[in-house]
Design brief:
Number of helices: 11
Radius of gyration: 59 Å
Strand order of the largest sheet: 4-5-6-7
Shape: elongated
Helix content: 40-55%
Largest sheet: 4 strands, mixed
Distance between the termini: 41 Å
């Protein structure tokens, strides 16, 4: 069928059918164009996210200079996925992003005519920026800002002002800093600034909570207590997990422990007596003895003068003697005095929850999960109780449950897997749509155009019209008869030859 026939056939269609054909053609072309544009669409991937305004501006300027297409969505910068890693390496080689703030690269460019005040200010800015970048390397820290106040030295006063510093931290969601990490930040800042002591460094978070204030002993003590309790819980969890994983397998046990720790320090003095044991306390003895003799001479002054001899006829006095003795012994019942100081941080109770995964077997290309038996769970329960020194009287609790674990792929594997699926669908979907359009749109239209037109039904003639036709035919026959007679008369020989040929046939 020629194109002219197709066009003539289309022209013979009614208006409604022509409009439908035009709509189908327009829709088909639109779908084809949309499929081609979608298949050639560039997939964008995150280049950097959560950048500071300064770093984001520098990255965008570099991308414009490199004439790389990019897209900004919120606080993330997107580039074509086939250029992500290459751009990161190129930007890193150029020192972008710098991590927020200005570092010591401010001194890379030498400017003439800079005053001492500007140089000093640039030094402080560079020091603040470098410290912020270093603190941001901690996995718990999202953003950090450091402010340093260095007093100006002068020779007109003997009073020396000490420098001070303050640090503002924005932590990542669900992350906290331990007291050891806070102390590390304090000493990092104090060691980086000349003359700065740790007591003059203050650290707060983005919510205004004080994280470090050395002058407040209660805050430090509370933080140490929390860190100690976390360390105790972690120690229980690590020991129990390593022990149970040796039985059920690596990654098939989840252990969580919660302890109650008593931080009060008690000092107690005890004094006890033993009535069965008697000890001598002291002994006191007293002894007294006295004696007398004769004395010559006459009482008076003359007889006592030197060189005087008593008279021979003087009478002699008689002699006397006495003796006294006493003893006092004291006894006391024995006693003992002891001073007991209970240690601070004593564990009062332990609560442990253990989740154990079941076993998996493959049957006919599918994985079947089998739960742990009651006997196995009871055995695990007894093992955990023995490991923590279970004591029901102090309120210890141990729960062991069997639950199926979900297998969660790693983030990188998940991203690669989804990217592969998207790449496959990127080519399969357009191909499927093209096939559907060919079979369900274009082919039916072509078949319709190729179909031969139906013959028009013969018109029904009325009797009068039929008689008129017959009359015309008779009249035409009479005319032909007269013409033949004239031809024979004019050329009889030719007419006879024609008759002979007719008779021979």
């Amino acid at each position: 069928m020629a194109w002219t026939d197709i066009l003539n056939q289309i022209k013979a269609w009614p208006l409604k059918k022509k409009i439908s054909l035009i709509a189908i053609i327009v829709l088909t072309i639109s779908l084809m164009v949309g499929i081609m544009l979608w298949s050639e669409r560039v997939d964008y991937q995150v280049l950097y996210s959560n950048l500071t305004q300064e770093d984001a501006g520098q990255v965008i300027n570099k991308l414009k200079e490199m004439k790389v297409p990019f897209r900004v969505d919120g606080n993330a910068i997107y580039v074509p996925n086939n250029k992500v890693y290459e751009l990161r390496l190129e930007l890193a080689a150029q020192g972008v992003p710098q991590g927020g703030g200005v570092g010591f690269e401010i001194f890379d460019k030498t400017t003439l005519g800079v005053t001492e005040f500007v140089q000093r200010l640039n030094y402080v800015r560079a020091l603040q920026g470098e410290l912020a970048r270093t603190i941001r390397q901690l996995s718990e820290v999202d953003q950090a800002r450091v402010h340093i106040a260095i007093p100006e030295r002068t020779i007109f006063t003997e009073k020396e002002e000490k420098p001070s510093a303050s640090v503002v931290l924005k932590l990542k969601a669900g992350r906290v800093l331990s007291q050891g990490q806070i102390g590390g930040i304090v000493h990092l800042v104090s060691s980086s600034v000349e003359g700065l002591v740790p007591d003059h460094v203050t650290i707060i978070d983005n919510m205004g909570n004080m994280l470090s204030k050395p002058a407040d002993g209660d805050i430090v003590a509370d933080a140490k207590q929390r860190d100690y309790q976390k360390a105790v819980d972690k120690d229980y969890e690590t020991k129990l997990a390593s022990m149970l994983e040796g039985i059920v397998g690596k990654g098939k046990v989840i252990v969580r422990a919660s302890t109650k720790v008593d931080y009060s320090q008690v000092e107690k003095t005890e004094e006890s007596f033993d009535p069965d044991t008697i000890a001598m306390r002291n002994v006191q003895r007293t002894q007294e003895k006295s004696g007398g003799g004769s004395s010559g001479g006459i009482p008076g002054v003359l007889s006592n003068q030197p060189g005087q001899q008593p008279p021979a006829s003087a009478p002699t006095a008689s002699s006397t003697s006495s003796q006294k003795s006493s003893e006092n012994i004291n006894y006391e019942v024995s006693r003992s005095v002891s001073k007991i100081i209970q240690p601070r941080g004593e564990v009062k109770s332990v609560s442990v929850a253990v989740l154990v995964d079941g076993t998996y077997t493959k049957q006919k290309d599918k994985t079947v999960y089998r739960a742990r038996s009651e006997e196995e769970l009871r055995k695990y329960n007894e093992i955990v109780k023995a490991a923590i020194g279970f004591n029901k009287d102090r309120g210890d609790q141990v729960i062991v449950e069997n639950v199926p674990f979900e297998t969660v792929p790693e983030e990188g594997e998940k991203v690669d897997y989804m990217r592969a699926i998207i790449s496959i669908f990127k080519y399969l979907v357009p191909l499927a749509l093209i096939v559907l359009i060919i079979f369900f749109v274009i082919k039916p239209v072509i078949e319709t155009l190729k179909a031969a037109p139906r013959p028009l039904p013969a018109p029904v003639e009325s009797p009068a019209a039929k008689l008129s036709v017959e009359a015309e035919a008779l009249a035409e026959g009479e005319m032909r008869k007269d013409a033949i007679v004239d031809a024979v008369k004019k050329d009889p020989r030719k007419a006879s030859m024609i008759l002979k040929e007719w008779l021979s046939e």
